Amino acid sequence: MKKNYLLLLPFTITIFQAQNSQLYYSGKFLTAKNKAQNFLKVHNKSSGAYELTDSRGLAIIAAKPYDTLVWNQGKNTHVIAPYELRELKSILENQTAKKNVENIYSKAYDSLVSKETEDEFSMEKTKTRLSKNSYPYFDKIRKLKLKNDSIYTVKGISQRTLVLNGSFTTSLDIKSRNAIPGTQNQFVQGRSENGNLVWKGPETNEIFSFGPDISTLGFNGLPYDYDHNGRLIPWVNGLQRAQQYNNNIFKTTAGYNNQLNVSAFIREDNNEKIRLSFNIGQQKNQMYFIDQFDIANTFKTKLSTNFAGYSVNLAFNYEEDKATNTNRIGLFNRAYQNSLLTPISFSNEQSTFLNSGMQRSYSQYADNPSFLFKQDSKYQYQNSQRQFSLNLLKIWGGFRLNLAQSYENNNINNLDQYQPSTYGFINGLRNERIQNNSLYHSNILGTYTLGDYDFKNVFSLNFILNNRKSDVYNSLVNRESRYQRTSQDHIFNYNMEINKYDFEAGFNLGNAFYISNTSLKNNYWLPKANFYVKFNDIFNWYNYDFKILGSYARLSTEPEMTRSYASYATTLLNAQNYQQYFPVQEVESFRNLSNINTREWKIGARLNFGNNISVDGEYFNKKNTDDVFPVFENNRLRVKNIADHTYSGYEFNFAYERLRLGYDVHTTHKISFFKYKDIVDRVASGYQDLAVSGFKDIYKTLSEGQVLGAVMGSYFERNEAGQLIIDEFGFPKKAAGMKIIADPTPDFVMKFNHNFVYKNFSLDINWEWKKGGHLWNGTQAVLDYYGRSDNSGEERNIKNYVFEGVQANGTANQIPVDFYDPNRNVQENRWSRYGYLGVAENYIQKADYIRINNISLSANFPINYDRQNLRLTFYVNNIMLWQANKGVDPNQNFYDMDNGRGLDFFNLPSFKTFGCIVSFRF
User: Fold this and answer.
1) What is the architecture, at CATH level 2, of domain 2-95?
2) Which CATH code for domain 253-921?
3) What pTM was estimated for this model as a whole?
């Protein structure tokens, strides 16, 4: 056969010529799963001809000696030997069974021409009767019917079987914190007075740890509200030495997770008629703080069956989550901050309350972490979610209709409170935040398919309706915010695919409408286009494939209504007033906003080298127009279309799969390289240098021409040559105002995955390397300010130090300084003179890190011929973390905000986890 393609439409003209010299090959061709299949294409690579198999997998194809036959898209080949070729007549004769002509028997004719004889073996005279014991498959007979005078037909009955299977998984994990900033354990609470270093007790409300060396002090042994050992005085013989107290609030904790999955289905012969499954689970996540944990309970069930020609799926999900506390008001950051700042001469654990009933802390300007965690109820946070869904699928030939409906309801209750005598809220504060969310989702998708595997066209029309409501109530301000949005997506899509032996191609073209009652303007032009071209077995090398792909799409979205922007209240405060942070203000409305319009395009390629090695790469560019950001205007929280920005970058991936190291050992290795930038193209008038997250005096900014989220803060004054300006006291001079001082964007991120398999054992190692990017270490700045950092402990006795720089008149600086001079006010020392945050530029640090994310060892133990299976997994997460900065994991976020990376203000440390998972399949 010859194939001619014109304008991608196949027209096939088949010419059969009978020639005495033409030879043919006859054989059986199977699919990749070794099954016979009708219309399986067998291609003569030498002549270009092809034939299709019948239902038994047989095909006859014209060929010559040593021609090469290929099928299953080139995965199977066969070279024809001369003895395998025959003439067509011979092949057809051998496939036709030869039978002799038999006499036709008729019971009616026989009764006319023959004399009736008595048959002593007739059924009428038999002494037995037909019963279920007389035939081994009697129970499978449903109907017996007389077809003619001598033949009976038997109809069988289908066998129905109830099958029950499932799995049970249980896990135990142990957590401990990762790195935290170093603190000094030498100098006590106090400051200098009249040239001497003096301990000043908690009753003085001293906040600095610039007192004397603890080794020079002892307890007087007299009753004292703040320490059962007594007050500290200069040590003399006979006194108990002063004690260094450990105020670490982190503990090694254990949690668990149990999941039971059960599935029951009825099978009729080999067809599944109905299935019912459910999942029950409970997880306890124990935090690394004192008595802080959350418990999650889940129940999920699903019913699947066929009804009136429809494939039907019904599902119900219920999830409940309860926690002792959340970090919505920055409670965990606050407790962590106070634990680090507590002087070594004060113990938070001795007692939480004074005899007066007020909290016991080292100063009225600080809190005892144990006091902060005291609460009336067991769970301050509760969340319950219910979801019902129905999915119907109907197929008529090439037409496919899918109907999906779901309803979801979510109730969230936060009880946030601080008790009386809390720093910043002397009379206490309490707020109950109740949020109710509901979502109705409807999806109708119709597709029609034309053509076959060689040339297939798919047309689809999709209608999506979302109706979302959200009500938020805050008891502190006695205000309820109500949000509602009904949005529609109408999507038309055309997809074309071409598949030949060594060539594949696909093209997708579509357009969408986005209609919403909260949008300022609906969008009816949202085109998209995708394509790919793949060349198989390039240069006739088996499984050496090359693929080019690309896409373009326009999207319209709106800000999520269920997301709370209340945490943006940090931008109203200076960092020193962190204790006043208590978010209760919600966004007024999500109406009359322009859509966030996105134009995204990608281009990439992939190359496969045989069955093991693959390399792929992609460049992407995503332009966001009229993106939405929160702002405070007239003391009211709003969201506005403020900026355009472009997110672009590229990614490369390399994989070597199933590299065999021995008979039972093989390994897989994958490497990815990722680099990106997010540049602000335009900022609306009046919003240049807007704070995205952070405090008023240090924040991530929205600045035209800069990366989105560049860090804005204070800096040192320099001359045109970049030299530091030194003030009249001999210290570098702090400049007025703020500027961009750091870019959190990394130069690149590389991730590595390694898998080793030996028989039933598997070892997985996952690690990553992030190079470049910077962060502001505000934790270090505050520890320096109070004299609690290890730097301030080690360097406070440095004297006659000359900073490199120039004085205001341009001459080189030659003024010697003491980092901590007891004859001067404590706030004139090296670390306290610049204020609470110091000079932000001085605390910019590299954010590089190398992290082993996960190491896991798994073993499979088949039971009962693999019908049941037991799997054991031992794992460790974050077991090793090297970081360039002095503080916590640079991946941790400011106050747990999604856009807070790059700011470290007592960010919570990450944790390492050791765990075991046991899974039994039955």
Assistant:
1) Sandwich (2.60)
2) 2.40.170.20
3) 0.82
